[in-house]
């Protein structure tokens, strides 16, 4: 990890003439990289918020052209898997980059966290050049990194027109330092094109999810900061409480083994522990030395105080992030009667989700454009298409709320009888349609009579 970040920082510094902003000032306690081994507060928060924001999301691409069908396929796949991953990575690391690549028969959308890429240059908040780690090789004490640099550069067309294109180049780093080595000398990297273009574009062909959490000391920084920024003390406290609770559980289950030589007989012949050793938490049942047994002992674990303290810490973290309780902590036992009460109880979470989706909309627009331009560069026939971002608010709507809304709509004439029977009464479409027709015919017969 250190070599990789060092190579990226060196590459960015050569291009800009200054060191890159790390984007993690004041984040004394981070646990996002602990997830494979243990519980991670940051990873849990990031995954939960990303799944909440992406629940029910679809990204249909409409149109009858071949281009529309191809874009609809890649957008469907990305909405299902890539978008939650990109949002979660953006929350956890502060800044996520998505790089679309054509792999001969389809797209691969590589999602990278803040540690895996760097901004080389940008103008007015729009990326003009980025660098990221494309691959890694290890040989004994040497680590090689293949760095991909993607830049928006101007060029002149054959007709003499000034255009801009997306330029892809490769660099090699050895143990965190840039070299002039040719990537072609590594057989493992034969599949990488060292220099290629996607012509006639107006932006860099990447997507970026920059977390909207801001470092108050550096509000105009280059990168976003993790969603748990400012929660260092509470994150450390959560792990402390968990460790303490586990230690006490382990103590309560530990069997104490000892040699009978530890004991001595008092004046009455009973087995006792010599002075200084009687602080051990054990008891000895009487009898001769050969009959003595040791009974394990440990204080009974008091779980409730730990659970209550953990809940306090989790609610503090949720408050600092800007969401309502229930993301990390246990949801409070309210009985919601209608959707208005649900919305009122989730105002902060709704605001957070809405803001996250607005940021994601920008990333999705850039990705749809990137997919289209890359397909054109690969020689596919252009065609008309329309992309939609359909977000869902089902996370605050219950079935009861929906049914009440449908009943009210039927009462004021906003929905017909077929919809009422289908959604409210739960009848199958063919049954609902038949019953509506039967009732209509009976009414006509009654009127004629």
Q: Could you characterize the architecture of this molecule?
A:
- The protein is an alpha+beta fold and 449 residues long.
- It folds into 3 domains: 2-229 and 353-387, no CATH class; 233-338, no CATH class; 399-448, no CATH class.
- 39% of the residues lie in helices and 19% in strands.
- It has helices at 2-16, 41-54, 66-93, 232-253, 303-321, 339-345, 347-377, 399-411, 417-424, 429-448; strands at 61-62, 95-102, 107-112, 117-123, 126-139, 142-156, 162-174, 177-179, 195-198, 207-210, 264-265, 271-272, 283-284, 294-295, 386-387.
- The strands form 5 sheets. Strands 4, 5, 6, 7, 8 and 9 form a 6-stranded antiparallel β-sheet that branches. A 3-stranded antiparallel β-sheet has the order 3-2-10. A two-stranded antiparallel sheet has the order 1-15.
- A hairpin with a 5-residue loop joins strand 6 and strand 7.
- Helix 2 runs antiparallel to helix 3.
- The radius of gyration is 32 Å and the shape is flat.
- It starts with a helix and ends with a helix.
- Residues 21-26, 278-298 and 333-337 have low confidence and may be disordered.
